[in-house]
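BACKBONE GEOMETRY TOKENS
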Amino acid sequence: MVLVESRVTAVRRSERRVGAAPAAASRPAARNQMLTLLREGSGHRPSVDPGLAGGLRAWLEDAAGELSCARGESASPLFLGPRTLLAAPAPAAWEGRADPFSLELATSSLVRALFRQLVIAGSVGDPLTDGLDALRVDPARAELVSFIETLGTTRRAELADTVGIHLAHVADITPRFSPGWLPRTGDRVAIPLAGGRVVLSGVFDLLVGAPVPGTASVCAIGLTTSGRWARGRMTLHYLSLLETLRNGAPPFRLALVHSGAGRYAVEDVREEHLRALVAHLAAHLTALAQDRA
């Protein structure tokens, strides 16, 4: 993979001219800076209102109950995730297309798999090989793996090159968390509403820290591979809401890593963000109920 490594180096040099990716000598400093921001952030640990989670849930329960009534008692549970609730393109948009896969989708899936490996194992061998091995473990990824394996030589080399660049950026930024941080990837969370007839669901790319009742003690790290930074940030806020409903306290801090651009941002979780998001979700559920009616 010498060709890939040389092309990654060339691309990252051009990005360094505009300040996107850190120089080799500053990589440990960049990782340590994110670790410091996650630990200290704005200098204060946000207080948690003991009634916050209950109030947010009650707001959502009202809207979910309305939707459940509109769907009828015999309807199967409705699972809603960030793609649908945050008005991102839904998987249904692919229906009827001859080829539902793309290099962009393959890149995103491979980079996420490699991100998990980097956090858990601390290193990656050949990016494309390791990424494919990780995807093969999930039966739901069988068609995507087949798509990647049947790519022509040129497109496969392009994919390997792109994945290598993303991985280099992620490795530059992502801290090496000690076991004491309790790093866990792919953490799934589901919040049942209306007696389980409506379920809000999502998956954290990475959570660190142990939940403590009544205290914001968990940090969430999200990964986005495309240029849609605002969507990645809103998804992370949505997952923060689910964590608030699950454990009674929001995450301590959030970090969004953009693997394509080699940039990241760390922010506190604010109550106004959660309330604004609940207002959006409640309006979305109410609109679904009205459409159903």
Q: What stands out?
A: The two ends are 57 Å apart (CA to CA). DSSP finds ten helices and six strands in the chain. The first strand starts at residue 78 and ends at 80.
